[in-house]
Write a structure and sequence with these properties.
Distance between the termini: 44 Å
Helix content: 40-55%
Shape: elongated
Strand content: 15-25%
Largest sheet: 4 strands, antiparallel
Number of helices: 5
Order of helices and strands: EEEEEEEHHHHH
Structural class: alpha+beta
Number of strands: 7
C-alpha cells in the first residue's frame, strides 16, 4: 500500500507481485517535475497547484516487461470543503458513452467536463463548488441523446409520409422535404 507521508511525499513501489517484479517509473508532461524517477517519489504540490503528468510503470518479471500508463494529477485538496456532490457528478459524467450522444454535443460536454475536473482541486469555497456543479449540470442538459433525435426524425418522417402533398404549395412542400432529408443526413453522420 502506498501512502503520503507528512512531508507530502508519495513513494511509488519499486517491487510488486510478491517481490518477483521490479517496477521502473518514468514521467512525461508539464507536471513531470512532481516525480523524482531516481527515487520513485512523487512530491504533492502546495495547495492551489495541480501537477498533471503521464506516469509509466515498466514492470519486469524475469525477461518479460509490460508497461502501464497512467494519466495523473498531483495536488493538495482543501479537505474542509465538501466536494462530494461534485465528485459524484464528475464520476457519473466520465461514464457517459460518446456513442449515446451527437458528436457535437458530446464534444462540447467533454470540454466542460475537463474544465470542471481540472478546477475541482483548486476550489476554496462552497460557492465555487456550486458554480462548478451548475456548470457540469448545464453541460449535461445540453447533451443531445442520439436515440431521442432518431425517434423525433422517424416521427417527422412518418407524419410527412401521411400528408397530402396537394394541400401544400410546391415551395412549402419542397422546403419541408429538404429539411427532413437534411435531418436524416445529419443523423446518418452521427452513426
Amino acid at each position: 500500500q502506498t501512502t503520503i507521508d507528512e512531508d507530502g511525499k508519495l513513494a511509488l513501489p519499486a517491487k510488486g507481485y510478491g517481490e518477483r517484479a521490479t517496477v521502473a517509473w518514468t514521467a512525461e508532461g508539464d507536471g513531470k517535475d512532481a516525480i523524482d524517477t531516481a527515487t520513485n517519489v512523487v512530491t504533492i504540490p502546495a495547495a492551489g497547484t495541480v501537477k498533471k503528468f503521464t506516469l509509466k510503470a515498466a514492470i519486469t518479471v524475469g525477461d518479460k516487461t509490460e508497461t502501464l500508463t497512467y494519466a495523473c494529477r498531483a495536488y493538495t485538496k482543501n479537505l474542509s470543503l465538501d466536494t462530494s456532490k461534485l465528485d459524484e457528478l464528475i464520476a457519473e459524467a466520465r461514464a457517459y458513452k460518446s456513442s449515446d450522444y451527437t458528436k457535437t454535443s458530446f464534444a462540447a460536454f467533454t470540454v466542460i467536463l475537463d474544465e470542471v475536473f481540472d478546477a475541482e482541486p483548486l476550489l476554496n469555497t462552497a460557492e465555487e463548488v456550486t458554480a462548478q456543479i451548475n456548470k457540469l449540470q448545464k453541460a449535461k442538459e445540453n447533451l443531445v441523446d442520439i436515440s431521442v433525435l432518431r425517434a423525433k426524425i422517424e416521427t417527422l418522417e412518418e407524419e410527412f409520409i401521411s400528408l397530402d402533398e396537394n394541400l401544400y404549395t410546391t415551395a412549402s412542400w419542397k422546403a419541408f422535404e429538404d429539411k427532413l432529408e437534411a435531418a436524416k443526413e445529419v443523423l446518418s453522420k452521427e452513426d
